[in-house]
Amino acid sequence: MAAGMLFDIKCSEEAAVCQLHLPHCETKDALLVDGLLTVVHITDDGMSILEPLEITNTHVVVKVPHLSAFGLVWDFVKRFLNLSLPINGQVLLFLRPPFTSCQALDVFLLPENIPLDKVAAQRGRAENISISSDCELSFGQSYSVHCEPEGFMIQPECAPFRSRYGPNFHPTFEVFLTGNPENVTLMVQKDQEEVQDQERRAVWRRVVNLTGSRRETPQRNVPAEDNVPAEDNVPAEDNVPADEKLLLVRTDFVNRVSESILDQLLDELLQRRVINDQEMQSTSTKARTQKARDVIDTVRRKGPEASSDLIAVLRQKDPHLSRELNLR
Asked: What Å distances lie between residue 148 and 152, 173, 175, CA to CA?
């Protein structure tokens, strides 16, 4: 069972690296379980398991014969038998751009050893709110988010914490903010009915500042249309052709769409005859970034009807990304 990200490590001189230190997310109590963590080594010849030379409070140290792909794994039985032991977790917050008067604050519950930049790369124009994120989380435990002042919509009401290390990182919770608040108090707590005191159930509580130089709230006093510069005269969404919509979100789409979703898009677009066999074969063998560019550019150049098909398929295959890109 995966216990961390998979790292593809290369070096110009193979013999220059003899040890790797891979970050883990275990607490001190969990590290007392013998054999809980090992390292998987993936090469062209297959997969092997490397026993750690040392496990520190933050990293697993292994000796490496040569470089390729490495990742931490849990002993499934030992992790299951010690399921009550929490891991070191993190709460990440991303504030979406204010497309309307209601902003959305995305709340991620993740293991501590997932790098922030891996999550941020999939968030497009959403802004990471820098805040202390440390907490302890337990696999299978159900958690909920509470916000003060009250009255904001939060979905879902509760969600279990699971071990996920990509390729996609979706918010665990969404808090929909109305009225442009400058500060809110967020609390993540265990969903335990037998414990009535919220403070005892809380695993993370912070005052979150929602103001900043990059966050712009919608203008209340909108100037007359004649006074608005031409480049700011954006047509109503329903009047924007589908191929233009794709062009507007092209960069975010390329940066955020996963390879598995791209493969599904290609299959569906071929079935709908939006693309042909040659376009399918040419695109499917490329790396993820270039594949994403080819998909959106090939369809976009075919015009509004083909672009509408791509938008419809994306809404079906990855509704979260289509909402983030405002593709409807």
From this structure: 9, 15, 11
